[in-house]
Amino acid sequence: MKLIIVSLVLLAYSSISLACYKSELSDQDNFINCKLAAEKGDQKAQYNVALMFRTGKGVAQDLEQAFEWYQQAAEQDNVKAQYNLALMYQTGVGTERDISQAIAWYQRAARHGNDKAQFNLGLIFHKGDGVANDYRSAIDWYTQSAQGGNTNAQYNLAVMYDQGLGIEQDYAMAYMLWTLAADAGHQLAKMNLDTLTEVISAEQIKHSQKLAEQWLSESLGQ
What we know:
Elements: H1 27-39, H2 43-55, H3 63-75, H4 79-91, H5 99-111, H6 115-127, H7 135-147, H8 151-163, H9 171-183, H10 187-196, H11 202-221
């Protein structure tokens, strides 16, 4: 059974933190206000300034400035900034590519429950992006992200169960995870469910339904 693995690194956050940002002001005025607050140490303002430099909103785009302001906010434990900083390190945008720094910052964001950071960590270890393949670590990070509702993590974790990568092959778990992702609109999961249905037994499907109930209960508990 040929399966397609999600290989896309998730995009950076695009949301604005409202600490210094006023919707009634122009982009230029918002940049001025946020930069004044950022220079005084406001971590939400620092995140906004970084975002504006990255996107060129209210100021000329400057990826190196974006990187520097994300770093300041990230060091003050701004989770969105930690995620974006990791993504810039991973992709070499605004700075030299440094996978060890990317992993370190993803881990800080992941410990705060950031499901995208958890997914990207799983993907790094799954693909061996700048590190040795580590399927066990990939499974651990995918699981955390999947339990947070990330459909790409649910999909990739199902692939690992289906193929027995780093874990005992388990069609029931794969079926359960693809069902969760498919129900949330993941198209590749829907395709793989159709294929898996041809080889999975009725007993395994029934077992997967029980697994889904347990999985969702554990996720809500977290």
